[in-house]
Design brief:
With about 230 residues, this protein is α/β, with parallel strands linked by helices. The protein contains seven helices and six strands. The chain has helices at about 1-40, 65-80, 100-115, 150-165, 180-185, 200-205, 210-230; strands spanning about 40-45, 85, 120-130, 140, 175, 190-195. Helix 2 links the parallel strand 1 and strand 2. Helix 2 (about 65-80) packs across helix 7 (about 210-230) and helix 4 packs across helix 7.
Amino acid sequence: MKKISLIAFTFIFTFVSCFSLNMLLKKTATVSDYSRDKRINLVIDAGHGGIDAGTIGFDGTPEKGINLAIALALYDFASVSGITSFLTRDGDYLVYDENDDKTRSDLYNRMDIINSIHNSLLISIHQNHFEDESQWGMQVWYSPNDEKSPILADDILNIAKSNLQPANERVNKVSDDSYYLLHKAKVTSVMVECGFMSNRQENEKLKDENYQKQLAYSIMLGLSNYISEEL
């Protein structure tokens, strides 16, 4: 009789334990799926490239190389921080289809990259230029199609002002249709104009590798603030 009771107890204990473990595993899987669904995938866009030099500094320096250097540094910082990241380009080229208008095809293909990535978030790196050479400082443009884009833009600019440009009084602006990626984007998207290459002093800074990394790090900190606040 005792042997039968022991067998029954063992069976019930095993069943309950397996059931509880199964429920725990299901709950863990659900949490994991939720985290995966909420996790952002960063798309870093280095503006211009190849035959498209972008704006030109007062000393002839092309924008495209500075954009790429900052984008690559941002990619490294994001990777170390555990953020899955993608680059629209990692060298001096345009992303275009053969037998098509190179600049137009490049924009379409960059848009396709953004749209093809689940839970993507776009940070596009550019430099500014203005006829008034006294103009300087970072400014961020944001997509009109997403309510979180201006929040990300503000987080990035606020960190940059705090770390690098305390006298910067520029304000962020919503994109119009002249900025194709931002205007067409359906995800959180910003374009960081890191500085003015038409300003002699700032142009020299923008060419400096250490300053480029400082800009990338400030953008990364701004993104981190956004993630901790909004996700």
